[in-house]
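Support request from a user on the community tier.

User writes: "When I paste my structure tokens into the form, the page sometimes reloads and wipes my input. The last time it worked, I copied everything first. Here is what I submitted, just in case something in the input itself triggers the reload:"
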């Protein structure tokens, strides 16, 4: 890697030099064609070692029910972001996930199941942990709000808020939803008929969840004082909430006025939680408790969250659209109150639906993620979720479509392409890579922007295809990176899938298996160029897909003979790796076919 930039530079210089001295070109050329060396739009090496560790968080999951596919989606997005940043060179990229274990919802679930709350939490928290394991979620800590360091962090944070004068006690009455763990204003309440009982009841207009009228004395946080500071913060950081629609929504919410927030419940009502420091008769509101998990991870209050080696603040917090108010209004206000640095970005995503309704335990339309992974494999499910899952709009979970997505993109396009290119009896990838590494004429031929003289007329369409495909590959990594910078992993992965599909067409239309044995030297050269570019496509795409499908892409890169050290983002560029193509499997009469990267699904539709 040390010599990579140098190597690339000298390669481009060599190309330029060769283009200027026509004797180096193998085939006659005229000056009417523009020729220039392959272009790169970003430096090959980037030093991220001095950078703050990239810190990404998932929401922590309620333990009142088992995990479902919606939870898996959130987890996969965070894992992809962590792995992507590692790919870029941020080796200390850190991912936090865990479980949200206090509150009325858990207390009631435990009462209903007739077990003590801690037992329920232990059992169900373990299920989320197991999900992380089977889904290959590379977390750095699995936090539980019942962990002692977290309780200490909440205790300290409360005292600091109080000390800073942001907490006061007052009588509170309003509609509380246990399911959503929040109070709703009167304007957001609907009176509806419950079809199952024939009785009327009050529900939240937004979530449809039951609400109950409560009257109690509790502690409040002076949220109303943060309206202007929040607006200013978001005006100064217009990308802090993605996608844009949700930023617009939150700006409107803040502009419409913020009321002080109730941040405790009487302990006789809510027993399962952290006691308010200095007042045992009150329990800390579960959302204040839960949100602080993100800063517990940074070692708060023992470690200085402002020191350069701190992971604080989060670079990206991934959340579903249903919990955006808690995260983008309450949470920054709590941090502002203590002058702590704010999260840099919130990636808010849409929901998975089943039968047109949000997948949720209370609706009963959930998909068991363990079964889904068992059925399709972990990487295909991860890929499907990111490729099809909604960032802006909800997505409908559909087993038939998972199979189609697998067969079309992964099996037919990606897997098939890999074996056709790397496992041909007629041409060798290594030979093509070596040509590129050592033959200046080949490099020159690869650098044309328009078909040169020798590749005109009957060869023109082949050459045009090569030029177009090379241009596509020249921008692939940067385009994926631009999407991941937003971040929009869906756009990134769809773009990469598009490159796979275009490479298939390119390879298919250029018939290198036939032309590589042609008597016509020009056709043979065009076939070599096609093989080289196709191999480069599969290599680059596999590097870029590692964060999405870590297991399968490791296999793919092994199959291509790509060195472990050559699998970082810097290598996802045309011509960046000259060492691969030594087949990890050589065809023999006994094993004439490559092992399948994406085998046939056991049960199809
Ligand atoms: N405990 C809170 C989060 C506290 S974070 C300080 C919570 N838990 S949850 O278990 O209900 O949801 C966890 C995450 O899963 C949320 O981001 C939520 O949006 C997401 N999903 C729950 N159902 C979902 C779908 N049907 N589809 C996509 N994501 C879904 O909220």
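"...and here is what came back when it finally went through:"
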């Amino acid at each position: 890697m040390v010599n990579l930039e140098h190597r690339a530079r000298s390669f481009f210089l060599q190309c330029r030099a060769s283009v200027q001295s026509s004797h180096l070109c193998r085939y006659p050329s005229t000056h009417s064609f523009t020729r220039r060396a392959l272009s790169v739009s970003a430096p090959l090496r980037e030093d991220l070692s001095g950078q703050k560790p990239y810190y990404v968080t998932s929401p922590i999951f309620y333990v009142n029910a088992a995990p479902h596919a919606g939870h898996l989606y959130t987890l996969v997005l965070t894992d992809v972001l962590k792995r992507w940043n590692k790919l870029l060179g941020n080796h200390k990229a850190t991912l936090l996930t865990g479980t949200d274990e206090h509150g009325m919802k858990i207390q009631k679930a435990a009462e209903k199941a007739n077990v003590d709350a801690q037992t329920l939490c232990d059992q169900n928290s373990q299920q989320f942990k197991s999900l992380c394991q089977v889904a290959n979620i590379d977390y750095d800590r699995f936090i539980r709000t019942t962990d002692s360091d977290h309780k200490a962090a909440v205790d300290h944070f409360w005292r600091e808020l109080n000390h800073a004068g942001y907490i006061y006690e007052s009588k509170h009455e309003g509609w509380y939803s246990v399911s959503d763990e929040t109070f709703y204003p009167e304007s957001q309440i609907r009176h509806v008929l419950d079809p199952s009982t024939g009785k009327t009841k009050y529900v939240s207009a937004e979530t449809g969840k039951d609400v109950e009228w409560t009257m109690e004395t509790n502690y409040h946080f002076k949220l109303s004082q943060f309206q202007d500071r929040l607006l200013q913060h978001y005006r100064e950081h217009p990308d802090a909430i993605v996608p844009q629609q949700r930023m617009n929504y939150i700006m409107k919410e803040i502009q419409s006025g913020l009321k002080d927030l109730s941040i405790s419940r009487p302990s006789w009502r809510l027993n399962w939680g952290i006691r308010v420091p200095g007042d045992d008769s009150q329990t800390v509101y579960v959302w204040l408790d839960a949100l602080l998990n993100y800063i517990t991870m940074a070692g708060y209050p023992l470690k200085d969250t402002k020191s350069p080696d701190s992971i604080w603040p989060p670079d990206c917090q991934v959340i579903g659209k249903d919990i955006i108010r808690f995260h983008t209004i309450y949470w920054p206000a709590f941090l502002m109150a203590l002058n702590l640095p704010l999260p840099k970005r919130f990636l808010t995503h849409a929901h998975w639906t089943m039968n047109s309704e949000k997948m949720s335990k209370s609706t009963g339309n959930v998909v068991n993620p363990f079964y889904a992974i068992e059925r399709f494999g972990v990487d295909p499910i991860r890929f499907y979720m990111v490729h099809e899952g909604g960032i802006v709009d909800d997505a409908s979970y559909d087993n038939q479509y998972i199979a189609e997505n697998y067969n079309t993109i992964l099996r037919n396009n990606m897997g098939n392409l890999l074996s056709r290119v790397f496992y041909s009896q007629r041409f060798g990838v290594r030979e093509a890579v070596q040509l590129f590494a050592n033959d200046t004429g080949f490099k020159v031929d690869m650098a044309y922007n328009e078909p040169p003289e020798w590749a005109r007329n009957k060869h023109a369409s082949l050459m045009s295809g090569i030029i177009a495909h090379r241009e596509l590959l020249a921008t692939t990594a940067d385009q994926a990176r631009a999407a991941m910078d937003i971040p929009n992993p869906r756009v990134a992965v769809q773009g990469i899938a598009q490159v796979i599909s275009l490479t298939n067409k390119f390879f298919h239309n250029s018939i290198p298996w036939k032309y590589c044995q042609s008597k016509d030297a020009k056709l043979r050269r065009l076939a070599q160029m096609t093989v080289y570019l196709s191999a480069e496509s599969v290599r680059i795409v596999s590097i870029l897909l590692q964060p999405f499908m870590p297991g399968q892409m490791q296999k793919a890169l092994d199959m291509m003979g790509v060195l472990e050290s050559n699998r970082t983002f810097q290598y996802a560029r045309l011509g960046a790796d000259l060492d691969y193509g030594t087949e990890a499997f050589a065809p023999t009469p006994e094993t004439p076919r490559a092992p399948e990267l994406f085998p046939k699904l056991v049960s199809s539709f």
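Agent notes: The reload is a front-end session timeout and is unrelated to the input. Residues 55-166+288-397 form one domain. The pocket of 5'-O-[(L-methionyl)-sulphamoyl]adenosine is lined by residues 59-62, 70-71, 73-74, 100, 290-291, 319-320, 322-323, 351-352, 358-360 (CB under 6 Å). Escalated to web team.
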